[in-house]
Design goal:
Rossmann fold; four-stranded parallel beta sheet; alpha/beta; five-stranded parallel beta sheet; homotrimer; about 300 residues; about 15% strand
């Protein structure tokens, strides 16, 4: 089993199913304690650096809340502008300096591989909070946790992933994790934004059940849970094509009610318009609960990495 | 009586005199404890989001200090630039996400009604820290508290409000509150920046004693306390008019010494030049003590809203 | 002896040798406690403002970590943009307001004398975290502490200071402190960037042993410790001169190995290229440990100033 204590958390592929089951069990325990208003001080005296070299209020606040709910404290920054990077310092030197101050580093950086580079020079564990088009493992963990919480299990369920599957960091980290859990996958995207062949080839080798489609309605009908992501206009060279397609990848209340009223809907947020707001009040609309789960999963991960559970 | 516990704090008009007496009594108790260096942990384990969609160091630091003095912790941001608003997210979605993380939201936003909108979607209580030209109820509360602390009472005192009464958010929130406290009001402003008729009409209906004048010296002579605010150049279409008037609305030491040496002077800060700096050392210059009172009043409000007193 | 409790920390010249020995002893005690994972709450209930009117992630994070490791909490800002300075408020008014909120102020500001100005109006102790081309006393303290930790003593050692000695704030604060400790100094700089005559004149009067050279290799050979700083291109009117000189002031591994393998190397960081990265893995490369020492020294200073040790 993965030795969480003292380890860097860089990539979804680091974890086996038992590792993730353990993480989710701890997260669910913390959820109960938070909802029960228990004051926790597992991490009193521990300092985490939240180094956000690009803005991400959502992920930053989630990590900071997680650390503080455990009784720990936080230092950091929320954009690269105010850092020594502006004075010509290398990432490696910045990390090595902050590493002298703190017990744990959570970071987001626009460059692929930056978290691994940081982990290579820091003594403190590094948690990757997103490295550009690379990985975002805590998002994948909280997505899986939400599926488990909402459906009560993972084995045998059908999860549809919809949106820009070609470029989506979240879905790439996700499939590295879902594949262990007996989850059938449906990839829903316009032809131009289908899951890359290297991903689907790997899934085939690993014997993961999946199908691909351009038809959101068909996927809604079949899926137990639908993970919506945004289709970004800037990915299309042909704007007319974008305009034609985008309507086909918007989830509406009518669609859910007529095709699959029990559908559980997830979204990494922020959304723009790919889930109509009248879906929000449906029982299966889980995307804000998913944001909440992010705090519990990050609490669990921080506590495990610091050797406190 | 107002049920503070679990409530949103949006508007000065929400509160009756007993509500505000209760708040001020708690604030004064907290003042004593802070001055006595007592460590408080009423809010240990509680997390507040300080969401400042526009910069306001003063109000943000005051809220954050208040929360930390109670033993709680804070996450947040100090400008909208680093938020998902930049990615096209609605205010409602931003608030609903943060609401999943924290126990309490204090916010400032440039749009009138934004705090009410946030309160409409958040489960956590929302405290309005200023919504554009709308309300700023905690400022009004701390102003009242300062009058009470400085003069020992509110009934029967005369409070002059001077400056841009037409556009001033602070004074509009203030009159909603002062009217319950037996305070006689003097409105001092250039003709063009007088208190709007809808405000004065309402005061007449409610039987509040007030008068209007363009003569600061006359007001200084009559008042027990003077609340100075800034006259903003940009409000004048005729700059010559501005230049002519502005001198008439600057408080000097000479004016106070010759007309009313016991005058208590308040100001929401930051000031530019509407109170000469040689007033600062006078016994009645209460504006920095007023800033201090802001922490105690916000501590009281947070503790009441969280059901901890 | 200097009365730390309640005092402002503005300038290296405030301290005698016993003052600094005391500070370093406390810092070393805190180092042991942190390395032993002891949770400290000496400053529970105490709030520090970290007012950074210009960005300095390194110094800000070091102060904030120090405060939090002592159990205290922090409010503040990391650039002047989001402050009331933008609304025309004077530094004095900003400080007097924040002074009402907190128990201690740590600040950085681009103007020489700004920390002294702040100390003049604040009741809370002010710690100067750098005032433009003026002083940066906590940097000088942590540099001295690092020399003592690395070499086990200060008396009789030879410390070479290399770089822009004419303009370097760090080295100017440093000599105010090193002179008490029986340290022989070597100043290494291009002719144009030599230590100013007023500094060397003062050292002569005080009987401090020093020499000046333009030859880095000679200094490396003689020194026990070398304090490298950056030579800034913008200081040269003649760029050809800069290009010619800069190579002569870059420390390489080959230089250290061939001339003085036991050399202890310091640097205030961030570095650009004045220490080659292959020096980093040498036993004497102390610059990241120096950053770590900064937290312990600031913890000691904060605890002393707050009267908690």
């Amino acid at each position: 089993m993965f030795q969480f204590k003292g380890s860097d958390i860089l990539h979804g592929s680091q974890f086996s199913r038992p590792d993730l089951e353990c993480l989710m069990d701890v997260a669910d325990d913390f959820r109960k304690r938070v909802e029960d208003h228990q004051v926790m001080d597992l991490l009193r005296g521990t300092v985490m650096a939240a180094l956000f070299f690009e803005p991400s209020t959502r992920t930053r606040l989630s990590f900071e809340t997680a650390m503080q709910r455990l009784g720990g404290s936080v230092v950091g920054f929320s954009s690269a502008e105010s850092t020594s990077v502006a004075k010509g310092e290398t990432l490696s030197d910045t990390i090595r300096t902050v590493d002298q101050y703190v017990d744990l580093i959570a970071m987001r950086h626009p460059a692929i591989g930056s978290a691994a580079e940081a982990a290579g020079v820091a003594q403190a564990p590094v948690i990757n909070g997103g490295d550009g088009a690379g990985q975002h493992p805590t998002q994948a963990m909280l997505d899986l946790f939400t599926v488990r919480q909402e459906l009560g299990k993972t084995d045998g369920i059908t999860l549809a992933l919809c949106g820009d599957l070609k470029n989506g960091r979240t879905v790439h980290s996700g499939v590295e994790i879902y594949k262990h859990f007996g989850i059938r996958l449906i990839f829903v995207a316009p032809e131009a934004l289908m899951m890359p062949a290297e991903v689907t080839d790997r899934l085939r080798v690993q014997g993961v059940e999946f199908e691909e489609t351009t038809d959101l309605e068909a996927a809604v009908r079949k899926a137990d849970a639908l993970y919506m992501t945004r289709i970004q206009k800037e990915r299309f060279s042909d704007l007319a094509e974008y305009e034609r397609l985008k309507g086909a990848f918007i989830l509406t209340r009518e669609m859910v009610e007529s095709l699959n009223p029990r559908l559980v809907t997830l979204h990494p947020l922020p959304r723009v318009n790919e889930i109509a707001t009248d879906v929000d009040s449906m029982a299966g609309a889980a995307y804000f609960r998913q944001a909440r789960n992010g705090v519990f999963v990050r609490m669990a991960l921080i506590a495990l990495v610091m050797g406190k559970v």
